[in-house]
Amino acid sequence: MKLADLPTPCLVLDQTILNRNIRVMATALSRLNVPLRPHMKTAKSIDVARLVLAGQPGGITVSTLAEAEYFIGHGITDILYAVGITPQKLERVCKLNAEGAKIIVITDDADMADLIAAQPAPPRTLIEIDSGEERGGVLPDSDMLLELAARLGTAVAGVMTHAGHSYAGRGAREIARIAEAERAAVTRAAERLREGEYTVDIVSAGSSPTARHAENLAGVTEIRAGVYMFGDLFQAEIETHGTDAIAVTVLTSVIGRRPGRILVDAGGLALSKDRSTASAPHDYGFGLALDIAGQRTMGRAIVDKAYQEHGIIELDPNVPVDLPIGAKLRIAPNHTCMTAAAHDRYFVTDGDQEVVAIWHRVNGW
Known about the structure:
Layout: E1 10-14, H1 15-31, H2 46-53, E2 60-62, H3 65-73, E3 78-84, H4 87-98, E4 102-107, H5 110-117, E5 125-129, H6 143-152, E6 156-161, H7 172-195, E7 202-205, H8 208-213, E8 222-223, H9 233-237, E9 248-258, E10 261-264, H10 268-271, E11 288-290, E12 302-306, E13 311-314, E14 328-332, H11 336-340, E15 345-349, E16 355-360
Parallel strand pairs: 1-15, 2-3, 3-4, 4-5, 5-6, 6-7, 7-8
Antiparallel strand pairs: 1-9, 9-10, 9-14, 10-13, 11-14, 12-13, 15-16
Helix pairs in contact: 5-6
């Protein structure tokens, strides 16, 4: 089966690029002697997880309990659920752990700390640290850090942080500075807990940009990164990787033609409406159009508008394009996590247009 035979829209995953991205990140972290706990929130696929975990200790990160249950069903039990835990979800975690899983949870809330500690078998818990993003977590020098530890008691397993603000960085040097601030915050929190005689086995940090460009990870016991596996236009813009590292694209068909533009059957659901590159040096609209081979032979042809099931591609006036109705092309996404969310499988290629496998993914919460 070839790409030209596939129904559209659908996700295409180039395994050659994926494997290269995995090697590049593994090399970057091995130089700093820190293991990877890969974040599977982007891929949501056991087939991808197996590739990433080759040579790694075996633990993963997830963002939903649906992901956790899916990966447990495929034999991966060491899981960090990296979203603040709630009472109802805590019940699900405790049930899964009682059945043999080893799910670690996170919190920055005093009431939840009490509820975790009150469980007959409390899950290992990481205190979330705010290292600059101001989304969640407590400051490393705050009184709340020690209060949370006191409430959790023996459930404390360490600390974690996520430098999501690294996405606002522009260039490797700036992101390296953010990575150092991330490291300093989470290791400072760990130091304070150890001074209070709490056990700190896990000091968890990471985002794809900071994992890629960190120059020092002393004191960090694991790095969490995920989007780097697939890459996207925004990550290329902030220099996490090059544009040749985008492994996932959306295959789409031409359904209409007008002077200077074409209409395709990939809209907001197939592509997402993420506009992250709008604030980057190059604005790619809702995605960059490529030919069916994944090459930039169409110049700067971008998805200018995205309706639910329709996308309008404004063609590059300097690059003649004559595609008939039904012709297929591919779109590189702004934010691959969002783009993949509505799809249930990957059509896997190995550097060409031949489909060599179909890998399913888990969705929902």
